[in-house]
Specification:
The longest helix is centred in the first third of the chain and has 35 residues. The chain has a single domain, classed as Orthogonal Bundle (Non-ribosomal Peptide Synthetase Peptidyl Carrier Protein, Chain A). A hairpin with a 5-residue loop joins strand 2 and strand 3. The protein is built from four helices and four strands; from the N terminus they run ααββββαα.
């Protein structure tokens, strides 16, 4: 029973729940960025480079062929075009995360730099009454 209770306490702790939400949102954000790169950014860039698709950039090490049994053997290639797209994806995700962290840090700095409210002012009557009280106690 102790192990189950300990796991329950661990699983519902705020940090674990926050981490789970961050992982889920991060996965969804990664898909959005991948779609942005693949569907919006790379096509015009490929058009500027002469109508090429980055997915077609590859170095073929061994051509594909059909063996005597009729089985098609796929070519062996280094697909550096896909690698370029993944690098662009990563760079955009890293930039977005950097901007979010920078925004949060700026908000924390503004919060920390906010002036502390002045201490409450005590009117003279209250000060005199406190002095009289202290003198009566003696």
């Amino acid at each position: 029973m102790g192990l189950i209770k300990e796991f329950k306490d661990f699983a519902v702790r705020g940090n674990v729940v926050d981490l789970a939400v961050a992982v889920i949102l991060g996965g969804a954000f990664g898909k959005v960025v991948s779609s942005f790169v693949n569907d919006i950014l790379m096509p015009p860039l490929g058009l500027l480079l002469g109508g090429v698709d980055f997915k077609d950039f590859r170095v073929v090490l061994k051509e594909g062929y059909v063996d005597p049994a009729g089985t098609e053997i796929a070519p062996v290639a280094i697909n550096y075009g896909n690698f370029i797209q993944f690098v662009v994806d990563f760079t955009l995700v890293a930039l977005a995360v950097f901007m979010i962290v920078k925004l949060i840090n700026n908000l924390k700095k503004k919060e920390a730099a906010a002036p502390t409210p002045p201490p409450p002012t005590v009117n003279k009557t209250e000060v005199l009454l406190e002095e009289i009280r202290d003198l009566l106690k003696k």
